[in-house]
Request: fold
Amino acid sequence: MSSYDIDSPPPRRRAWTGVERALAAVGLSGKALVIAAPAIWLTVFFLVPLAVVFGISLTLKQFGRPPYTPLLTTEEGTVQLTLHLNNYIRLFTDSLYVAAYLNSIKIALISTIIALLIGYPMAYAIARAPERWRNILLMLVILPFWTSFLLRVYALTGFMRGNGVINQVLAVFGIEPLVMMQTDFAVYVGIVYTYLPFMILPLYTNLVKLDGALLEASADLGARPARTFLSITLPLSMPGIIAGSMLVFIPAIGEFVIPSLLGGPSTLMIGRVLWDEFFANTNWPRAAAVAIAMLVAVVVPVMLLQKAQDAVQDSGRTR
Amino acid sequence: MRRGWFLPVTATLGFAFLYAPIISLVIFSFNESRLVTVWSGFSTKWYGELFADPQMLGAAWLSAQVAFVSATIALVLGTLCAVALVRFKRFRGRTVLAGTVSAPLVMPDVITGLALLLLFVAMEATLGWPAGRGLVTIIIAHSTFCMAYVTVVVQSRLTDLDLSLEEAAMDLGATPVRVFFDITLPIIAPALVSGWLLAFTLSLDDLVIASFVSGPGSSTLPMVIFSKVRLGVSPDVNALATIIIGIVALGVFAATVLQLRSRPKKLRN
Reply:
């Protein structure tokens, strides 16, 4: 099957043959190069940086350049490795970090549920729409994604601020202006607003493949629409639900822009705490420790959800 | 199929939710008053102010350069990575490569940004490169996270690809490299275009990573916008947003038209 692994291709008088011969002459196969280029790049600019973060999270803040104590020092000819656990101890003892950590998970979870409740009917409506409408509706879902994320969050501030559009509409009906900006509510709206397309697309891909015959059979057997939905549509769309929820939940946990533009000072989120440790307090080691803790917060749910998705797919296959 | 009122109504409300803030943003970009939410008459003065702002123009130029170069690097590396993962079923470290390339997709921006900055600082201290931070460091950072997205896009296209075409070319004596450039590349070209565009957009949009890895004097467009928006509403940001939305809408419209036009041709062949 793997068709690139054919040895000794017949000679051809073409430029590519020359390229391959030149590579072979220096002992490199095309295959090795194809793998090596991205692998080296990712090692240097993705894996090594994470190791550096971990290393610096074990140092202490100091005044100077760089603003952290060295990991390795040479004293009287011997190399000494100095590790400090202070940053991690602070993460668990200072209530600020614990609160921010838990609050991030809470905000991400609630936003994901709201996005699912709004996104599911939308995806279903698009999947059930007449075929010539589907592509236009899908395009309308994707379009905001191509415009700037930052500018969409900014658009919301104009909408929700004290003298914003919503309050002006409310004033027409004689309703007192609502305080929406700089609250947790604004953060929920912001996350749902910006990540809704990520929820709708996987759900749509899943729901559009749904076999209409199953629904008809269920109706013919006397099931009411709600029953058909709960016992056929919903279970079959589980992979879409999981994929969409992952795509909203994961970026929401580490969100920085939305809480800092829409949330108030009390809206603690871990991404914002990391930002402030780094930029406001210039405490690089502490910021690094927050990053490692955050990594755990993101990786664990991802692995759990991945497992759930695999399980759903497996059960779908055996059925 | 029973058609109730529930689905159309929720879909309409959902689309209203998605578009109302954007539409009001566009409308108020033509507002005369500095108060972005009180209408006081039609004016295009904020557009004039936008194009007279050297800080904004400089940042836009920097962002465009970064996005162009990063998207191109990400396209090359991402395509190589996708080919490696789809076509080479067995090689040492395949699982590690597959995991590492998709990890930036779930990595929070603050971590990616901090990690790369700490790397650049450590590299500068030990190797003397990169000297200072700016264009080069932003490009490296953006290429790295954009590459993950390109890989996903190209990978899904390669998986769907009909292998028999490539096998036929091989049987006719073409070398693997030639098969790739003469057969595979033209077929996956649409995926490459969308991968590049996705990378370009993501790079243009990134605030957090760029804030970490940029140096003094090299502010990208989102960084300038963020510092303005943080201080309050500014109508010239509305004008900028309107221009960006206009370009995107035109681009998506053009892509749709091109797609519809190319369809009958395919049928004829």
Observations:
- The longest strand of chain A covers residues 72-75.
- Residues 15-84 of chain A form one domain.
